[in-house]
Every structure is written in structure tokens, then in C-alpha cells.
Amino acid sequence: MASSKWGAPLLLGVLSLIMFLPYVGSVHLFDWDEINFAECAREMIVSGDYLQPQIDFMPFWEKPPLFIWLQVAAMKVLGINELAARLPNVLAGMATLIIVYTTGKKINDRQHGLWWATMFSICWLPHFYFRTGIIDPIFNLFVFLSFYQVYRIGEREDSGWKNALLAGTFLGLAALTKGPVAILVALLSFSVFLIANKGWGKYRWWHVAVIAVFAALPFSAWIVATIWQHGYDYGAWFLKEFIEYQIRLFSTEDSDHGGPFIYHFLVLLAGCFPASILMFQPLNSKEKQPFARWMWILFWVVLLLFSIVKTKIVHYSSLCYFPLTYLAAQRICSVQNGIAPIKKAIKGGILATGILLGTMLLLLPIAGKYIAHIIPYVADKFAAANMRATVQWHWAACVIGLMYLAGTIVAVRKMRSYFGKGLAILCVAQLVTIQTATYYFTPRIEAISQRAVINYFQQFTDKRVYVQPLGYKSYANLFYTQKQPGGVPEYKGVRRDDKGRETPEANTEWLMNGSVDRPTYFVCKVQDSIEYATKPTLEMTGSSNGFVFFKRKSVK
User: Fold this and answer.
1) Which of 55, 83, 110, 319 sees the fewest Cβ atoms within 10 Å?
2) CA–CA separation, 184 vs 150, rounded Å?
3) How many other C-beta atoms can be found within 10 angstroms of the C-beta atom of residue 421?
4) pLDDT digit string (tens) for 366-379?
């Protein structure tokens, strides 16, 4: 009995490591987000200050520290490198697959749990994010665990105070991972539930009170510890900056990350294929499963919230992965059990989307082979220069797209008579394609987009120099030079923006014209190079793939 109980979770754990761990540290971290968090973890280790996130050894108020602490733990074991930065999410992927399987089994049955875990592992973005060093996979897991405990309160015959305690704790950990967006999503979702349910049902006001108290504890403990270590004035200032940043994040558009209202609809359609199509398979009978209602609420709250938010980044809607894959698994079980036949529209959607994605995979290496003919038609000077990177593309890579197209077509044809077999073919095609595409395309995309500047930064690793981006935001200069704290007092004193806040970007003027105490180097993008080439203190030293490099002419 025990071996049967733990057999599937253990197998899922092993399979998840096989899927997510290989070559996860073989590609440089991507700027901004991956390097951002990894640099915070590195500076915690270097400075010995494990309470205060820092960038360039100055306060970093954009994110709380929980995910950074996990990266610190990994770096303590594996060293400061890409593998350590991404390992927490590899383990989060393993935990996620085990949790969705066991949760699906408890709510419905083993079949549903297996399909839920399968959908999570074979969809493009959920699979890929478990191989990254971004904050969202762990944040999403905590939010989901909180939602599950809230659901359990409504299903229990007793008071459910333990579930309320757990719901609050998980929600608090989510807030300590990414900030108050966790609380906002929870409040909006519970409000929508009360409206849809036409009342509180089994929920009581004290459930909300217990959840609120325990949700506040992790974040409050961190702020109190920060005040204890750095003083009340510093703690109050830091909290103020943190809150103001969260407000700006929701109310203003980042200049590099705008997009239309339907941005996240399209991201989820392609990035969560095939679950994004299967979740809309109709059910014959009226849906009465309470957890499905919670999942629909979570899905639409997150999707609409981040469609309204001005800044559009792919992973902002990643919390939708949990409800989306749950609902897809529910529909799969319904069709497999003969409750509802698969609709032609669903098969047509799978076929059309699969052909589109497969065609893109087929064309990508062809575009790489003929990139010299494409560059003249690219208006963006920086993108065009990126595309001149020396990258080897192979005709054999077209097999990835061809096999995916063939797998999709065969799968849909098989679904007409044997839905389960057709879906199994589609799942295998997805998993094999994701693995091979990640292995083949990711290093080449990294080489085109940033490897030239990463290599430039790495030549200054552990050297007593200043290296600063000009005209664009980056954390790569800090992480890949392994910058250490220190410098002349003036360097610390002038690094303030127009609001008087110390920021890593506010020191550029001093580095270009001030009394620097060490060799100083700069990098800008090609479209800004003419402006900086006219600076009397700067000397151009070279360029590569859209990046232009400068050096201070003299050191005073």
C-alpha cells in the first residue's frame, strides 16, 4: 500500500529532474530578470547582508528576498554560476508536478492527477520556466497552494482553521517572494467567488481574519528584521520605496515592455498549447465541481488583471498555468471516460495552432541560414547588428519542425477514432520537441541577443575596474564581472537619481567625468554610439553584434 501511495509521486519527481535539469546551466543568464535575481543573491553572499536585497551594493526595493534566499542556498553549494541560479526552479518544477498530481487525485481521481501533471510538463512555457532563474514558478506555486487550502475550507465539515492557517502562510510566502501582487490576486479572486456564489457559504469572517494575519507574518517579519539590523529610518524609507515601486509597476508602462490588451491571451494560447485549446472543450452536464469554479476564477482574474496592467511581460500571466492545465485535464478525462465527445472545433484548434507552431520551428533554422538576406529589411539597427552574430545553423534542425508538424497531424487524425492514443502522440511530440528545441535554439538565441556583451564583461571578472552600461539597463555588467563592493567615497555619494534615491544607473555622469580611481569601461547599443563617441572623455575600443565599447581616456 505504501509503495503504491508513493510510487507515482516518486516517479514524477525523477521524471521532472530528467526533463528540467539537463544542460540547465549551459547557457548564460538572460538579462534582465534572470541576472537581476542572481546578482542579488551574489551580492548577499559577497556583502554578508542576507536581509537586504542589493544591486550594485545599493538597496534593491523591487522584490522581496525569498526566491533570492533560495538562490543563495544553491550558490553556497554549487558556486556562483548559472546552474545554481536556476536550480531553485528545477526543484520547484519537481514539486509542482508532484503537487498537481496529488491534488488532482484528491479532488477527482488518479487519472485526473496524471493528466494535470502531464499537461503542466508538456506545455511550452510551463516547461521552459522550470529551467530558468526567474521568480515566478515558486511564487505561482505558493499562490496555488493558498488557493487549494481556501477551497478545502469550503469543503470541510469542521471549522477548517488549519486550512485557513495554511492558506495564510502560503499566501504570505508568495508575498515574500514577489510582493503584494499575491494579496491583490487573492482579494480579487475571493471577491469574485463571493459574487458568483451569492454569499459566503461555509466561509466565515474569522477564516479571512486568520488568513490575513498569517499572510502578513512572513513579510512583516522580514521588514522588522531589516529595521532591527539597519535602523527604523532606513526600514521606513525602504518600505516606502518598495510600495511606491509596486504602484508604479501597475500604473505605468515600462518603455521596453508595452503591448496590446490581448497580449497575454496570445501568450497563453501559444505558450500553453495544447492545454490552452483543450480547456475549452465543452462538458455535457453542468459543471458542479467547486474546485473548477475556483480555477476559472483564478484564470480570469490573473488574465484580465495583467491585461489591464500597462507593463506587458510574458511571465506576468504565468499564474494562469495552474488553472489552465487543471481545466484541460478535466476535459481530457471527460472525453476519455465517454462523458463528452471531443468537439471538431477543439481538434481544429489543436491542428491549426500545432501547424502554426511547427511551421515557425521549421522556418527558424532556414531564417538562420539565410539571415544575411534578411538583415537589410530589419529597420531596428540594434536587432540587425545582433543578427550578424556568428551562429552556426544546420539544415538538420529543420527536422525539429517537420517532426512536430507530423506529430500534430497524426495526433489529430488519431483523435477521430481513438482520442486517448491521439492525445498520447501529441504529448510525446510536445515533450520531444520542447527538449530538442530548447537544446538547439536557446544557445543560438542567446548568442544573437547578448553573448557578445557577456563575453566583454567576463574579461573583467575579478579585476579592479568599473564597467557601466550607457543608455540601457542591464545587470550583466555586475554579475559577469563579479563586481566587488568598494570605490572612492565620491562614487557612493553621487549615485542618486532626480528624486534623491541611490540607484545603480545614477552614477554614469561621475564615471564619465568624475575622479575615478580605477580603469573605467562602458558599453552602449549601436544606435546610441554616435552620441557617446562625441564625449571628450571616452575612447571607442571596439564593437560586436550591436554593442559598442568605450574606455575612459584618463584616470585621475
Assistant:
1) 110
2) 15
3) 12
4) 999 999 999 999 99
